Amino acid sequence: MERYYFDANATTPPLPRVVEAVRAAMAESWGNPTSTHREGQRARHLLEEARRAIAASLGVAPAELVFCASATEALHLLLRGLRPALGDRPALVFPGEHSACLNPLADWSGLRWLPADPAGAALLVQMAASNETGILYPMPAAPGAARIRDCAQAWGKVPVSLADCDAAVFSGHKIGGPRGAALLWLRPGLPWTAVLEGPQERRRRGGTEDLPAILGLAEAVAALPERLAGNAALAPLRDALEAEVLGWSADYAVIGRDQPRLPNTSSLLLRGHTGESVQIALDLAGFATSTGSACHSGATKPSHAITTLGFAEAEARSVLRVSLLPGTAPAAVAALAAALKRVLKR
Ligand code: PLP
């Protein structure tokens, strides 16, 4: 049976040039970048070349980037590392953040949920784009606070600016890069201390660097201009799918339809159905979709990212997330619409 992948916000297939870069690095550049011999020096050179290229793409200085294994890890290092300086002062946090961000904040004593009054806040945490709804969020004003941006979903789908934040995280596997490579960006002067001791990454993240994954990430970053264009081109396809679904029943809605959104994401509220059963039926019919963030799939708790927008728990359980990959053909979207119509009619 032909398979159709509509879960780009969970992960993306690595680009062929990424697969080749990872393969070549594993075969030829397996030296430890910390070693002083020639194999190590070669690995160090490639590592720093990749850092320079990625930094240039983001418009930051190479030394400000820390390579991590995942955005989850980067968020933990970032937020745990800010705790010693800021942990006993108020933190202002968007309640729809990914659990990778909320978990390391759980034991901050002064947690307040946006849009609370920013006065006195030492930390401000606002994701650039929601993984579940695709809604884009500007950075709120909080004078004097360290501003944290989770760019895991926005990267490669819309232009990302770091002008209004002081630290940010990025994930390679959401942009056609490999698993195992992600970024933590730290603006110089941030009151941050390392929590994973070790000599690597200028003592900011211990552990031998995963050079193949990092070189694969650099390839994905080199392909970002085409990826951004490919994602932008998805909006009309996504909009047509939504228009069709909305035409089937007055009980159906699209979350965030009237707000600035990622061009590839559709959060379909299908009242009268559970997202989980629709997702399973679609999977059996050949279509990979999601009920929310991948991390929540299988969990019975409705997504906090949806209830935080004011939807009831039953409504949050009715959400099906469709997230398109760049290059998705109109015929594939039409096939999904036809399958979804059949599933909903059962
Ligand atoms: N932040 C957001 C908004 C995400 O969507 C995800 C993954 O779904 C993460 C963080 C975690 O990224 P990673 O899989 O690289 O740990």
How would you describe this structure in keywords?
single chain; seven-stranded mixed sheet; alpha/beta; three-stranded antiparallel sheet; 346 residues; binds pyridoxal-5'-phosphate; 12 helices; 37% helix; 12 strands
Descriptive account of the structure:
There is one protein chain. The protein is α/β, with parallel strands linked by helices. About 35% of the residues lie in helices and about 15% in strands. The strands form three sheets. Strands 2-8-7-6-5-3-4 form a seven-stranded mixed β-sheet, with helices on one face. A three-stranded antiparallel β-sheet has the order 9-10-12. The protein is globular, with a radius of gyration of 21 Å. The two termini are about 20 Å apart. The structure holds pyridoxal-5'-phosphate.
Short description, anyone?
The chain is of the alpha/beta class and 346 residues long.
